[in-house]
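Tokens for chain A. Residues wanted.
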């Protein structure tokens, strides 16, 4: 049972808004008499806007600063607008703004060259701001910066392009989840995923596709909740990294905020665009396993030679084809804009029987009404239908439930088929022919999602605007998983399970903004209210002992055809609400001295009665030194701004109902109440109530500088951050006489992340026929756990024979979050036996001899991106890399030397090391490897054909692209940029690689046509 928050009576603001609208006209005369600058316009101003080279600036936005009246320039750069002599024109074009006083009814404007990057207009929470006025740590990507490669979801687009943002795959399976972290890992239980906001609608980080049931092969990885967006529709991605920028999102901003904006119609002629590509993918690399001949020569027991020769990696992996088609239409008028798109992606996975299909439709529309566009209404709507086929690759299935580990361990002397043409039966428990396992398993997920919102902006008075934002996010998902009757020991009589998920997220926001300019004093004030409700439910249905695979109708089409009905898991339904009040003030004095202050109050049903509301303040200051007299005439420094911020944000990503007690009835706790000896179910407390539970709080300090030098030949930013997570939520031992042994509570511990971020860019060459830009970014992070009230917390369950209950991660004071704990491997003795360090000196090796090693978080992450254009040829590439982190190669642990004694394959280097096959596998530093790497992440070459002679086509660009082309690393697994979810007891795991679906190397052939 949740505690419902009384909804703020927002309806009361609607008549207030109407009253303002009606009263505004009545009060206009009084205002005009008192303030002449707001007088009624009575002149027709005509003008022309040109670039520095004299060409027309088509689509420039022309605004009267005092009244808000707006128009745009036509194809010749001409415009007409109503204004008074003496008022101010704002000319915005290509991210820059110029202000010009109106001296006559005819105006001619020559735009200044774009010699700075600080002049860009960037998105912030609940609005936008010129970068020159910003005081927080904010990074923005535009569409042209992520057009290379095949990217299914938003998070892939950020990889290697923003300092401090790390994107790691949990699986290479199409549509699978991706882990995004900003400035390190700041939580033990609550995750480190940032808040994603799409066109003003904050998304939930909960799963949006039905969970995988366990039919004997474990639960597969969660799907990516962001894969519903067509990446071709995205206009920009903005990352709010420090507390000053993210505090406006309060309880959900502790891991940073990612603002995603989709495309809108642009000024000029209507444009119809067709994007398409055809791609081919293969496994990024193969593991160095023993071949059939090597295996025959190595084994002692010749019964393990089955006479065949099979490369099982070649059998399970394939060259996978992918295609994408996207059409879009955009148009803009004097009063509004329109953008519509339709796309279809079909991607085969590199593992047989896996694929991802997505169809999306989007419409973005904006229209203005009344005098001088007093009312503006926006509509953003996207719908996606996703169909996925998965494989049995559950991270929690142990050593016998993953098709990839079966392929890697399969004896290379076995044949794929027997003499009768059937799949070879290995006749072994917990080890099966991987192709046979694929053939008797199906996992089909269908997810339909609709995300939309309507925004209405009403100008109540000059500079004063009211905005209403109503959004909805609705998902329906069905997953059908079947394990047909088979010859293995995993559900041999077969099982079918249907899982359903219904997710609902509704948002209501309304707020006021006020822009006030008093000579050199400039204010932007924001105040508002937000209400968001989340509701999701799930049901399960199952059938055991089903008919054979080729007999009758498949269970997903007719579950009642055969078998015994059962409920594989109880259904669930949860609901939570978030009610918030927020405010922000931006102050700018003389374009030199900047101040930003914000606060948000969040009330959540997830937390206890005594802590329903949390308060998240921030303050930031900035000094634009380049506007001072002593730098205004500098030939070196074009822009230089120093800034500093402090603030607090929250993390509410914990399961619902943690504050509530949980009870159950069971015979185990039963008793005999009457003399008839009938046993009554007893009453058991499963969870102790904690009405004092509250948010985890992240306190962050940031010091930064933005600069542009030598006419934009070098530009960028430098940041120092100190980010401290306080009051972490843990499930720790409860006090004496508590009804349960553990309780969820906030503790006094801290997780500290601090480091530097550097972003550098350069317009090396900018000429008519040749341009070349390069940018590099790098970030350091130093992570440490402090002041935990418990000695240690474990996570990271390890899989493999004899590994039950073994964990690899530890959270302990003085060490990095998720550090590794294991035996220290020293080498091999004369008999081939493994030698481990005897830490406690008792002469035996046991759990007390485990040591703590460095963790998975890299000390340095970096990226390099370059773009060139020579006449009609464009060429771009990007590198990514990291150093200082480690991975537990749990896959190698399953491919250990002992496999020679158990009819299984192994890694070649284990045999060549001289180790004895009698060594029993143990978690040790033998399997701890550095995750350092340098990768050519993307490479693209394109050519734009001259279409001036074709009236029906504006442009045609053909290109070839390569993704994950090559990687330099000493890591022996498939990919060093991986993180399998192996959490234990709800504590997140870090840096474990267990038979993860491998990444792919991809080549694309594509075209973009504009009509």
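Reply:
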């Amino acid at each position: 049972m949740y505690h419902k928050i009384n909804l703020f009576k927002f309806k009361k603001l609607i008549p207030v808004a109407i009253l303002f609208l009606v009263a505004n006209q009545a009060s206009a005369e009084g205002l005009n008499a008192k303030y002449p600058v707001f007088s009624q316009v009575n002149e027709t101003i005509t003008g022309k806007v040109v670039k520095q080279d004299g060409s027309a600036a088509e689509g420039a936005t022309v605004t009267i600063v005092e009244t808000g009246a707006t128009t745009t320039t036509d194809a010749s750069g001409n415009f007409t607008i109503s204004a008074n002599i003496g008022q101010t024109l704002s000319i915005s074009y290509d991210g820059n703004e110029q202000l010009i006083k109106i001296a006559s009814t005819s105006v001619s404007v020559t735009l200044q060259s774009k010699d700075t990057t600080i002049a860009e207009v960037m998105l912030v929470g609940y609005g936008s701001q010129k970068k020159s006025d910003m005081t927080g740590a904010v990074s923005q990507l535009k569409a042209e910066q992520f057009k290379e490669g095949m990217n299914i979801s938003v998070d892939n687009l950020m990889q290697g392009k923003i300092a401090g943002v790390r994107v790691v795959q949990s699986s290479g399976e199409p549509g699978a989840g991706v882990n995004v972290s900003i400035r390190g890992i700041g939580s033990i239980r609550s995750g480190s995923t940032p808040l994603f906001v799409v066109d003003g609608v904050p998304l939930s980080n909960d799963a949006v596709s039905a969970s995988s049931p366990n039919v004997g092969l474990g639960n597969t990885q969660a799907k990516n909740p962001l894969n519903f967006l067509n990446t071709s529709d995205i206009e920009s991605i903005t990352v709010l990294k420090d507390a000053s920028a993210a505090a406006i999102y309060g309880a959900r901003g502790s891991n940073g905020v990612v603002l995603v904006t989709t495309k809108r119609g642009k000024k000029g002629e209507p444009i119809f665009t067709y994007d398409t590509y055809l791609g081919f993918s293969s496994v990024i690399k193969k593991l160095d396993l023993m071949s059939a001949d090597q295996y025959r020569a190595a084994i002692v027991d010749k019964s393990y030679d089955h006479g065949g020769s099979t490369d099982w990696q070649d059998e399970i992996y394939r060259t996978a084809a992918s295609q994408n088609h996207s059409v879009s239409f955009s148009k803009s008028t004097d009063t509004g804009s329109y953008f519509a798109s339709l796309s279809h992606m079909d991607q085969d996975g590199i593992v047989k029987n896996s694929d991802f299909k997505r169809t999306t439709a989007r419409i973005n529309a904006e229209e203005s009404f009344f005098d001088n566009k007093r009312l503006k209404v926006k509509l953003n709507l996207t719908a996606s239908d996703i169909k996925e086929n998965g494989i049995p690759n559950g991270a929690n299935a142990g050593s016998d439930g993953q098709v990839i580990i079966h392929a890697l361990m399969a004896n290379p002397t076995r044949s794929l088929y027997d003499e009768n043409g059937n799949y070879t039966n290995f006749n072994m428990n917990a080890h099966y022919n991987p192709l046979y396992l694929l053939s008797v398993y199906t996992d089909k997920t269908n997810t339909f999602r609709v995300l939309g919102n309507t925004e209405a902006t009403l100008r109540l008075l000059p500079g004063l605007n009211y905005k209403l934002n109503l959004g909805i996010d609705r998902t329906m998902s069905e997953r059908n998983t079947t394990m047909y009757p088979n010859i293995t020991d995993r559900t041999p009589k077969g099982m079918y399970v249907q899982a359903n998920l219904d997710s609902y997220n509704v948002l209501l926001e309304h707020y006021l903004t006020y822009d006030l300019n008093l000579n050199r004093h400039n204010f932007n004030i924001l105040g508002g209210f937000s209400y968001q409700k989340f509701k999701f439910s799930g049901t399960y249905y199952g059938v055991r002992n089903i008919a054979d695979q080729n007999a009758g109708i498949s269970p997903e089409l007719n579950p009642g055809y055969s078998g015994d009905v059962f409920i594989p898991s109880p259904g669930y339904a949860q609901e939570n609400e978030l009610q918030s009040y927020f405010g922000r003030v931006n102050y700018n004095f003389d374009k030199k001295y900047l101040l930003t202050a914000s606060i948000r109050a969040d009330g959540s049903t997830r937390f206890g009665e005594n802590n329903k509301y949390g308060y998240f303040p921030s303050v930031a200051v900035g000094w634009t030194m380049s506007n001072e007299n002593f730098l205004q005439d500098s030939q070196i420094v074009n822009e230089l701004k120093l800034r500093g911020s402090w603030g607090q944000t929250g993390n509410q990503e914990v399961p619902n109902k943690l504050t509530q007690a949980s009870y159950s009835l069971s015979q185990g706790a039963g008793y005999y109440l009457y003399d008839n000896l009938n046993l009554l179910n007893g009453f058991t407390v499963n969870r102790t109530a904690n009405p004092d539970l509250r948010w985890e709080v992240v306190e962050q300090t940031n010091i930064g500088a933005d600069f542009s030098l030598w006419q934009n030949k070098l530009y960028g930013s430098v940041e120092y951050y100190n980010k401290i997570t306080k009051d972490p939520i843990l499930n720790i031992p409860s006090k004496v006489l508590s009804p349960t042994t553990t309780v969820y509570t906030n503790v006094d511990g801290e997780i500290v992340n601090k480091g530097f971020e550097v972003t550098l860019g350069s317009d090396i060459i900018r000429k008519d026929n040749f341009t070349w830009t390069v940018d590099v970014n790098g970030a350091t992070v130093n992570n440490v756990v402090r002041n935990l009230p418990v000695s240690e917390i474990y996570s990271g369950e390890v899989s493999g024979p004899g590994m039950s209950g073994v964990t690899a991660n530890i959270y302990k004071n003085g060490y990095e979050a998720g550090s590794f704990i294991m035996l220290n491997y020293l080498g091999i003795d004369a008999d081939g036996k493994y030698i481990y360090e005897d830490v406690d000196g008792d002469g035996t090796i046991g759990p007390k001899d485990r040591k703590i090693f460095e963790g998975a978080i890299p000390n340095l992450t970096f990226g390099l991106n370059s773009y060139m254009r020579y006449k009609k040829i464009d060429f771009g590439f990007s590198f990514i890399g990291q150093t200082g982190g480690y991975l537990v190669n749990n896959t190698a642990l399953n491919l250990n030397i002992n496999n020679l004694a158990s009819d299984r394959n192994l890694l070649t280097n284990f045999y060549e090391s001289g180790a004895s096959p009698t060594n029993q596998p143990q978690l040790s530093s033998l399997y701890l490897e550095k995750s350092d790497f340098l990768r050519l992440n993307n490479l693209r070459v394109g050519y734009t054909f001259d279409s001036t002679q074709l009236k029906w086509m504006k442009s045609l660009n053909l290109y070839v692209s390569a993704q994950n082309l090559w990687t330099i690393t000493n890591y022996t697994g498939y990919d060093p940029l991986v993180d399998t979810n192996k959490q234990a007891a709800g504590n997140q795991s870090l840096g474990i690689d267990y038979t993860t679906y491998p990444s792919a190397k991809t080549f694309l052939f594509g075209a973009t046509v504009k009509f």
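The two ends are 56 Å apart (CA to CA). The first helix runs from residue 13 to 34.
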